[in-house]
């Protein structure tokens, strides 16, 4: 799975960096670095909705430092472990 985190100016101000760091740690913690790639993305067009990411082609909004784990465990891990 590919996780793209928006680093456009609006998302950047809302904490993209924390979201990226959070995903990095979780990928390491779960040892799924071979199955999950993490990248930065330009504006995804949902600037008013909090930090926006794409999980493969699916847009997810409202990411923050403190819900990265929930999104990762509920949306990313099940896909990776299929
Ligand atoms: S800056 Fe992130 S969606 Fe626009």
Give structural notes.
It is a single chain. The protein has 82 residues and is of the alpha+beta class. The chain has one domain (2-80): Glutaredoxin, CATH 3.40.30.10. It is 41% helix and 26% strand. It has helices at residues 9-14, 16-30, 68-80; strands spanning 2-6, 37-41, 51-55, 58-63.
Q: Which helices and strands appear, and what pairs or packs with what?
A:
Layout: E1 2-6, H1 9-14, H2 16-30, E2 37-41, E3 51-55, E4 58-63, H3 68-80
Parallel strand pairs: 1-2
Antiparallel strand pairs: 1-3, 3-4
What are the defining features of this structure?
Glutaredoxin; binds FE2/S2 (inorganic) cluster
Alpha-carbon distance between the two ends: 11 Å
Cα shape: globular
User: Can you tell me the residue ranges where pLDDT is under 50 for at least 5 consecutive residues?
Assistant: none
Kindly identify the CATH topology: Glutaredoxin
Integer count of domains: 1
CATH class: Alpha Beta
Number of helices: 3
CATH architecture: 3-Layer(aba) Sandwich
The major beta sheet can be summarized as: 4 strands, mixed
Bound molecules: FE2/S2 (inorganic) cluster
Number of strands: 4
User: How would you write the strand order of the largest sheet?
Assistant: 2-1-3-4
Global Rg: 12 Å
Give the fraction of residues assigned to helices. 40-55%
Average predicted local confidence, pLDDT? 97
Strand content: 25-35%
